[in-house]
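Input (structure):
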């Protein structure tokens, strides 16, 4: 009998295959009481294990380097940071010395304490560190026990990976040639395992309660990564429906390559600019400048995060200029330093905050530390010579903040002109709309900026008062909420009426089911991870403006998120079908 299980969508796509249970192969941990004379040797054994585990993590990172983004690969850097955290290593040694226990027991004890501390934190990004600690401990135990972890395989057959959770080290151990989907009992949409599943293009559903007890290993399942549903033992009709949808997706993916060189223009001739989100200069090496209309979001903070101290003005100029040269005259939008919250800088000591996502972050730090902001703006202006650069301010709350930033840009521009330093005197200044209050005073803000960009990830979180990383309420975080749709519509209407370009740079810009709706709401510029560009371009080229506006009108009249979601799915699937028919 078919069984329908609800979880959280972690990675889009459809998978059909037998579900196979996988368990950590380090369940048995030897317990031994040491003699005092053995303590020094056991501490040394732990130190050696840390070195070996570090090599293993670096190996995992290298093995996946070609398949995931630089940003996602930083997940492994976070694990290395835990492994080499002096407090962590000291606690391991102290556990051996004080409890006279073997290294394996010390690892378990210390990791359990760290997990409990992280998981009690209110900040979701810090709670996620608990899973990293578990993964680091598992790798350390493997070294101590001299037990090499085996690859997750189903003896050469297609399979769906099922476990309590999908941890970063698992990504390098799955048999990806036969892996069709991932289902876990734990985790959230933004857990590190979910991020890696999306990066690897594997359909995934997480947070399926009591998964391993409810579905036997070997049971055929459908993993609907679009809807966050797992169907165990599907009936013939359901199976046929999903097989047809899966085949259509596969055929469409094969044919999407046809769109690479075509413009993102609706059938009735309206152009929508499709831009790329990038996090470092290395990301540019993976993108062909000819297939995008520029960079809609260059997250400059990642260049700061991968250093041990603030980059100099000269170093910043070199980084920014590389992107401008790559763009060959196309727009490059540099977001100024957006650290704090879920993006701490190791060398910037900020006070502990009860709710850092609503705290001292983004532009708030830059305005309190004007030297930091001044140096970055000066570097951006110097790098802008001979290109088309834009400066985007994050976490803006008031018009006064923008006025202060505009004064800094104007002052630096005058200084550079007086010194005969090459720069773009007409560089554009824009604001991110992610704080709801800013959208409500947008008519006062627009005369102060040249463009606006909507950061929907935070905007939705703040509008709905939902922590998007909290698995207990993850289902409540939805950009399909009618209130969100109306808010986006008002932002687009105000910006368009004022003649200011308005873009979307949050996750929904890369969701092809959302494309027609966003165009209908009035957006003509979408910025996304490059992997999503072909699907979004397909939707742009499928729906004319009148169709998009009808979809938007229906969404604005909807009474629930499920209605809006069903509407976008219905039209999105119709767009795929039209494409497959060659119409």
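Output (sequence):
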């Amino acid at each position: 009998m078919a069984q329908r299980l609800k979880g959280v969508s972690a990675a889009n796509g459809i998978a059909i295959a037998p579900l196979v249970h996988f368990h950590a192969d380090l369940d048995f941990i030897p317990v031994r009481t040491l003699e005092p004379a053995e303590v020094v040797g056991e501490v040394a054994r732990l130190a050696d294990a840390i070195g070996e585990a570090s090599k293993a993590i670096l190996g995992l990172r290298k093995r996946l380097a070609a398949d995931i983004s630089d940003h996602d690969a930083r997940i492994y850097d976070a694990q290395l940071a835990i492994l080499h955290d002096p407090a962590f290593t000291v606690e391991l040694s102290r556990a051996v010395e004080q409890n006279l226990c073997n290294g394996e027991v010390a690892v378990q004890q210390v990791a359990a304490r760290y997990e409990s501390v992280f998981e009690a934190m209110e900040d979701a990004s810090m709670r996620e560190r608990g899973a990293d600690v578990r993964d680091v401990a598992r790798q350390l135990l493997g070294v101590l026990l001299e037990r090499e972890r085996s690859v997750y395989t189903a003896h050469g057959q297609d399979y769906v990976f099922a476990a309590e959770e999908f941890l970063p080290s698992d990504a390098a151990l799955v048999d990806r040639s036969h892996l069709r989907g991932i289902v876990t009992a734990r985790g959230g949409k933004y857990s590190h395992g979910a991020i890696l599943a999306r990066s690897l293009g594997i359909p995934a559903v997480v947070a399926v309660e009591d998964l391993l007890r409810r579905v036997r290993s070997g049971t055929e399942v459908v993993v609907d990564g679009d809807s966050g549903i797992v169907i165990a033992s599907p009936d013939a009709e359901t199976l046929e429906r999903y097989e047809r949808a899966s085949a259509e997706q596969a055929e469409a993916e094969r044919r999407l390559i046809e769109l690479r060189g075509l413009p993102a223009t609706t059938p009735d001739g309206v152009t929508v600019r499709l831009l790329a989100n990038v996090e470092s200069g290395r990301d540019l090496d993976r993108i062909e400048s000819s297939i995008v209309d520029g960079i809609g979001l260059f997250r400059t903070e990642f260049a700061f995060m991968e250093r041990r101290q603030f980059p100099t003005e000269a170093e910043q100029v070199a980084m920014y200029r590389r992107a401008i040269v790559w763009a060959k005259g196309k727009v490059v939008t540099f977001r100024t330093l957006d650290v704090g919250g879920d993006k701490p800088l190791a060398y910037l000591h900020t006070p502990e905050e009860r709710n850092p996502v609503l705290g001292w972050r983004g532009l708030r730090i830059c305005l309190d530390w004007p030297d930091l902001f001044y140096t970055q703006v000066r570097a951006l202006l110097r790098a802008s010579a001979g290109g088309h650069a834009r400066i985007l301010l994050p976490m803006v709350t008031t018009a006064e903040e923008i006025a202060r930033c505009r004064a800094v840009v104007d002052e630096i521009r005058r200084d550079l002109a007086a010194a005969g330093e090459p720069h773009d005197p007409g560089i554009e200044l824009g604001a991110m709309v992610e704080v709801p209050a800013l959208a409500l005073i947008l008519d006062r803000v627009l005369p102060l900026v040249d463009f606006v960009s909507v950061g929907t990830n935070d905007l939705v979180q703040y509008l709905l008062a939902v922590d998007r990383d909290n698995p207990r309420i993850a289902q409540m975080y939805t950009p399909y909420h009618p209130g969100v749709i109306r808010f986006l519509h008002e932002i687009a209407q105000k910006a368009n009426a004022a003649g200011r370009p308005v873009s979307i740079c949050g996750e929904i810009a890369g969701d092809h089911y959302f494309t027609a709706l966003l165009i209908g709401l009035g957006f003509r510029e979408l910025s996304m991870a490059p992997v999503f560009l072909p699907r979004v371009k397909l939707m742009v080229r499928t729906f004319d403006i009148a169709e998009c506006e009808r979809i938007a009108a229906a969404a604005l009249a909807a009474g629930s998120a499920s209605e809006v979601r069903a509407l976008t799915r219905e039209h999105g699937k119709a767009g795929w079908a039209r494409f497959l028919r060659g119409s």
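Notes: The first helix runs from residue 39 to 64. The chain has a mean pLDDT of 87.
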